Every structure is written in structure tokens, then in C-alpha cells.
Amino acid sequence: MRSKILDLLREAGDSYLSGEEMAKRLGVSRTAVWKHIQELRRDGYDIVSHSRSGYSLQSAPDTLRPEEIKNGLRTRRIGREIRFYPTVDSTNLEAKRLAQQGAPDGLIVVAEEQGKGRGRLERSFFSPAGKGIWFSVILRPDFLPQEAPKCTLLSAVAVAQAAEDFGMKVGIKWPNDVLADGRKLVGILTEMSAEMERIHYVIIGTGINVNIAEEDFPEDLRDKATSLSQLKGEEIPRVAFFRAVLEHMDALYDSILREGFAEVFSMWRRYSITLGQMVRVIDARGGKDAFTGRAVDIDEDGALLVDTAEGRRRVLAGDVSIRPQQD
Ligand code: BTN
Predict the structure, then answer these.
(1) 279: Cβ–Cβ under 8 A, 6 or more apart, which residues?
(2) What confidence tens digit (pLDDT) does each residue in 86-117 have?
(3) 314 C-alpha to center of ligand 1: Å?
(4) Is 119 a known ligand-binding residue?
């Protein structure tokens, strides 16, 4: 009902719409309409009223509520269904619970705040209220489980494209850290449930630092993390940015389902700050096999190809640090 009232007010534009007219169009009482208007005002919508002519929407808050995100969202799959939480333990955990109950392909879980934001390798992820976009997408693609890790690249590319739309330049460090000025802007955690031959679901959890000032980060993150507002030097409208990310994700997911990962790979290469650089690779087992070489490309599995003095190495998982150029 809330979103229908908002739709009517938005349709009316600058004109006023009477409570009676809205009640008639929505098939509810005028009191019901009035109650919803009060609730919307409490949530930060600026709705002015005029005793004769009715209500008019002046402005909407920048909250990640479904009715805001869906307003003008052009996607086929991603975000057609949205679950919003003012606060949640972790959007990945909630997405997992919903996926186990049969949630559809493309459903997204988004929260204003996470109490237990999760990072890779059992780390925690800083997710303060109202300052970022913390969300997870449930995908149910019809391909083999070994293809799933490549889905992570989709999110990194979509955020890089959205940043470009908003006039910012960011880079992707293999496999999926989005960086600006050498500091981390976005974290991505992909999880999956599958049998040998079939994916049940993939969950891509993405945390975008949007309006976080340097001093808002815990001290140990200050020199490692940054945000879009720090990069641009001004506040970024979260809803509009999120819509751009979802639209890019949707287009990339569509191309994956139709033609495979070629488009995602070519976009990933465009934003990569790893390729062409000397890198130090510490393998996923924790440093037993560390080596240095030049990162030359990614292959069809999304593995990083690194040329070392002993020949070419293929890195499927691990931590990569970019070494400062010597020459
Ligand atoms: C990392 O960089 O280690 C990955 C961080 C992933 C954070 C996001 S925020 C939304 C989603 N929910 C979580 O609990 N984690 C991911």
C-alpha cells in the first residue's frame, strides 16, 4: 500500500492529490490513506498537505527501502524482489535463509546496517548504519558449480561501471577488490550451495562504502579503506547509485546466461589494475607457496596468469599484492 501511495503521489508530480481520490483509486478508506501518509512522513518523506487540494510529495529520503529502489529500476531479474531490513546480522546469512526457503533468482536482500557483516576468510566487515550499501543477490544460474566463482567478478565490474556513471574512476584488483587510491572501496563475498552437477543457489554479497568519512572508519581500517564520498569529495545519493549497480549487474548476468562470461571478462580487463603489474601471490593455503611475477591476463576460468622466472603460473585462489614499479 505504501508503495502504491508513493506511486500515485509521484504520478501527480507537482500537483496535489486529495485523500479522497487516493482512497477511491486504491479501494481503501480515507483514514487508511491518512495513516500511511503519517507513516511515510515519520520515515522521512516530505509530504505537504493542503486542506482543500490534498497531498503533494516534495522529497523522498535516501533510504534503501524497496519502494525507493524500485522507482524507475530497469532490470529484468536482479532486484525484481527486494527484502529490506533496517538492521540484520548479515545480508548473506539472511539471503541464505531465504534461498533455502525457495527464494527466486535475482532476489536481493539489503540492509541499512549489519550487526555481523561477514568478510572473506572469517573476517568481519564494517557495515555502519545509513552510510553504505550492504546487500546480497541470490542467483540460480543453470550452469555447473565450477563456473560459480566467476560470478563474483560480475559484482566488481557492476560497481566499477556504476562509479564511472557517477564520474569516478576505480580499479579492480584480482579477483574482486574494488579500490580507489590504493584503498578498498568494496568487499565481495560469494557463497554457494550445490551438488556435483547442479547449483542450488549462489549468493553474491557486496558491501559498498558510500558516505563514510575517514574518521568514521575504525582506526585499523583508516589507511586501508575508503568510500565513494571520499573519492568524489561530496555525498553520493545511495539509492541512485544502488539502482545503477543493479542495472549493470542485471545486464551482465543477462549476457552470462546468453553467451557465457566473455563480456564480464572483457569489462573486468578494462577496470583491472592488476594486469601488467608485478605481483606477489600468496596462495589460498596461507603463504606456503608465495611467488612473484608479472600478471598478464585471466583465463576462461577467471584464474590469474602470472609469468615468473620459472614459467607461467595459474592462480585460482589466493591473495595478490601489487608491487611498486621498479623502473
Ligand atoms: C571481503 O572483502 O572480505 C568481503 C566483504 C563482503 C561484505 C558484504 S556486505 C554484504 C554482504 N553481507 C555480508 O555479511 N558480507 C557481504
Answers:
(1) 292, 293, 294, 295, 304, 306, 320, 321, 322, 323
(2) 999 999 999 999 999 999 999 999 999 999 99
(3) 26
(4) yes
State mean pLDDT over 166-185.
94
Domains of the chain and any CATH numbers: 1-59 (1.10.10.10), 66-271 (3.30.930.10), 277-322 (2.30.30.100)
Q: Which residue's CA lies nearest to atom 11 of ligand 1?
A: 205
pLDDT tens per residue across span 248-305: 999 999 999 999 999 999 999 999 999 999 999 987 665 577 899 999 999 998 899 9
25 is in an annotated binding site: no
CA of 123 to the centre of ligand 1 (A): 9
**Identity (one letter) of the amino acid at 138?**
I
**Which residues make Cβ contacts (< 8 Å) with residue 270, sequence separation at least 6?**
none
CA torsion 123-224-227-202 (nearest 10°) is -30
Written as one letter, the residue type at 10 is: R
Closest atom of ligand 1 to 184 CA is 2
Q: Is 164 left (phi over 0), alpha (psi -120 to 50) or beta?
A: alpha
**Which ligand 1 atom sits nearest the alpha carbon of residue 177?**
2
CA atoms of 183 and 167, how far apart (whole Å): 18
**Using a 6 Å cutoff on CB, does residue 173 contact ligand 1?**
no
User: How far is it, in rounded angstroms, from Cα 285 to Cα 300?
Assistant: 23
Percentage with pLDDT > 70 across the chain: 98
Residue showing cell 562504502: 209
Q: What is the pLDDT of residues 65-80, one digit of tens each?
A: 999 999 999 999 999 9
For the question of whether the overall pTM of this predicted structure is more than 0.85, the answer is yes
